Amino acid sequence: MIMNRYILYIVLLAPMVMAEDAYTELHEIGSMRDLKDNETHHQPQDWQSLPEGELGESIKRGYSLFMNTQQLHKSGKVNNGMNCTNCHIGGGQVADAAPMWAAYVSYPAYRGKNKRVNTFGDRLQGCFLYSMNAKDGKPPEVLSQEIKDLNAYSYWVSFGGVVDNNLPGRGFANIDKPKQEPDFARGEEVYQKQCAVCHAENGQGRQVAERYVFPPLWGKDSYNWGAGMHRINTAAAFIKANMPLGQGYSLSDQDAWDVALYINSHERPQEPRFKGNVEQTKEAFHQHNGTYGLPSPLDKHILGSQAY
Ligand code: HEC
Ligand code: HEC
């Protein structure tokens, strides 16, 4: 309980602290699980060693964008209520929360999602397009200042590490297949007990001064139907390692799968590759573990047909 209250305090204060020079804040880097033998996590440098001059300024702007991506809301490059740090926790520095220091050293890489070799810049654009729901399917250009700054920040947190696309702590938890098929009703129970206190009973998160302090999990301000997080397996792995916030690895695998299915069985912004018809879009892009195009467990409407 003390731990919980502490976290709430941090979360509520964060946006206020962030306004000015939050780049001096430090984050816990370790994951919430015990490390395996010989496993170590890369440790980003501390802010004292920030380079001076243009590069240092670019890194700071990148960090600021990462923490408060809503700066780009007016431009339409962000078209929901999310910030990068909502999923890449602790400014993209925390192990098992898809940290930037493990991602930066993993590109170029071939991706089945767009069937070509992606640079790190392409990957940043991808999260704008899907997780941040960029307006009209238009993320910032690869050579835009925003992408350059996020790139500089990611480079900086990776500095001193090794180039390896499989660093310990990359991505989310390794979670086994569930013993029982994920179930909506069980997921709802987990949700109301373990998640609603922060993300609200209706999944819409909570705002202070029009800024989300607890991000929405579905609805118009959440990630869209094309985002990695809409997949049940990806969300289960994220949730297992990172949620409830500050209590990663406390849920059973089954609970993580059930609640992932629950949150991803609600409407959210439309898939940016939408072909005008849910069935065709599902056929083309959703041959994976998601609920797009399936009947809603609540009212049987086809998920995606009432997307925002
Ligand atoms: C809704 C949650 C969410 C938000 C918000 C989000 N991302 Fe992601 N991001 C993901 C998920 C999930 C993946 C892994 C997706 C996959 O592989 O299917 C990912 C992957 C990435 C990767 C590649 C990681 C790797 O190890 O290869 C980068 C880089 C990245 N995101 C950057 C960003 C940036 C920058 C922002 C903000 C502009 C952002 N993301 C916002 C969920 C999110
Ligand atoms: C103590 C409050 C708290 C609890 C309880 C909690 N979360 Fe979160 N959750 C957060 C915060 C805050 C973030 C964003 C992290 C950040 O910005 O540092 C987040 C982020 C997320 C995200 C990624 C961002 C998004 O909006 O999609 C998902 C998914 C998520 N939580 C699911 C859950 C689930 C499922 C549970 C219950 C098992 C849960 N959370 C319990 C506070 C909480």
Write up this protein.
Residues 57-158, 182-267 form the Cytochrome c domain. It comes from Vibrio hyugaensis. Pfam families: Cytochrome_CBB3. The chain has 308 residues and is mostly helical. The protein is 35% helix and 4% strand. The chain has helices at residues 2-18, 54-67, 89-92, 100-103, 120-129, 145-158, 184-194, 196-199, 232-242, 253-263, 278-285; strands at residues 109-111, 116-118, 206-208, 211-214. The strands form two sheets. Strands 1-2 form a two-stranded antiparallel ribbon. A two-stranded antiparallel ribbon has the order 3-4. Mean pLDDT is 91; it is low at 15-26. Residues 7-8, 11, 85-87, 89, 190, 194-195, 197-199, 214-217, 222-223, 229, 235, 238-239, 243-245, 251, 259, 263 line the site of one heme C.
